[in-house]
Amino acid sequence: MTTYKEIKGTNIEAVASDPSNLLDGQVWFNTAANALKGYAGAAVDAWSTGNSMNTGRRDMGSAGAAAQTAALAFGGVNSINNTEAYNGTNWTEVNNLNTARKYIAGFGTQTAAIGFGGYHPGSIDNATELWNGTNWTEVNNLNTARLNSGGSGANSTAGLAFGGAPGTKNETEIWNGTNWTEVNNLNTARANMGGCGTNTAALAFGGELPPGYLALTEKWNGTNWTEVNDLNTARYKPGAAGITTAALAFGGQSAAEPETAVTEKYNGTNWTEVNDMNVGRYGHGQAGTIDLALAFGGSESPGAQTEEWGEIGGTLTFTDA
């Protein structure tokens, strides 16, 4: 067996603090932390492949506003009611929606989510369902039936629905845990946009306003929508994660690419392109934050692929787990 010394020309050092001027592949034992550590090169944000969903799909509802390791996927093409929960490693089938539908939107967490709108054969839906971590329950309907809308909300008691189709809508509704109430409209009517944030601070970006795709970004302050700086790549059906001052847009369909992998970060003012997804896709589910995001499913032949966004490289701590 080849030893570390044979590879690196030195033994593993025991030191009281992490060394400076680290080299790729360097390993040391930190006596203060009582931990074996190593350096895997400069840390970068990138996408890595995770375990696939049980049922491939696109245009689904999703929830997991602040957790990469606790997401929910429900409904989707082809008008399915299947629900799956993600625990950071694997997807598990759980109890179904009451109404099977595609083009559904959602917000909340893995244990407290809202699914609303969508389409089931013969009907554009205004139905809303509440997920309590075990079962879906029908609750009060949207005022405006719609599909392919945006949604934002940190939990199941406070959220926002905006835009959608048919006819590219700009209507916005706020959810208070019991009822939907119409509030001020988007400035630009659209469907198939990305959306993230809460009911008082949301972001809507990209989308479709026939005959083209949009780069437009709007910010919600709890009362009004305001146009802010555009995405670099106009697209529809992107994934979205984060809040209004720190958001991530990933994937979608652009004029140049039917399944783009382009990822952009928003710092509250501007969008900046960062590392691409491994698999270009649109209509995928999403969860997490700007630092730890999740993308799953999507594309024309509905896929089941899962990708995790986060920091790769840097200083690593090894365990015996």
Describe the structure.
- The protein is mostly beta strands and 321 residues long.
- It has two domains: 4-39, no CATH class; 44-311, 6 Propeller (Neuraminidase), CATH 2.120.10.
- Helices cover 2% and strands 44% of the residues.
- The protein is built from one helix and 32 strands.
- The strands form nine sheets. It has a four-stranded mixed β-sheet with strand order 1-2-3-32, with no helix packed on it. Strands 4-31-30-29 form a four-stranded antiparallel β-sheet, with no helix packed on it. A four-stranded antiparallel β-sheet has the order 5-6-7-8, with no helix packed on it.
- A hairpin with a 4-residue loop joins strand 19 and strand 20 (202-205).
- The longest helix has 5 residues, at 4-8.
- The mean pLDDT is 93.
Question: Which second-level CATH architecture of the largest domain applies?
Answer: 6 Propeller
* Poorly predicted spans: none
Rg over C-alpha atoms, rounded to the nearest angstrom: 21 Å
Number of strands: 32
Strand order of the largest sheet: 1-2-3-32
Number of domains: 2
Q: What is the SS-derived class?
A: mainly beta
Number of helices: 1
Approximately how much helix is present in the residues?
under 10%
Strand content: 35-45%
Mean pLDDT, all residues = 93
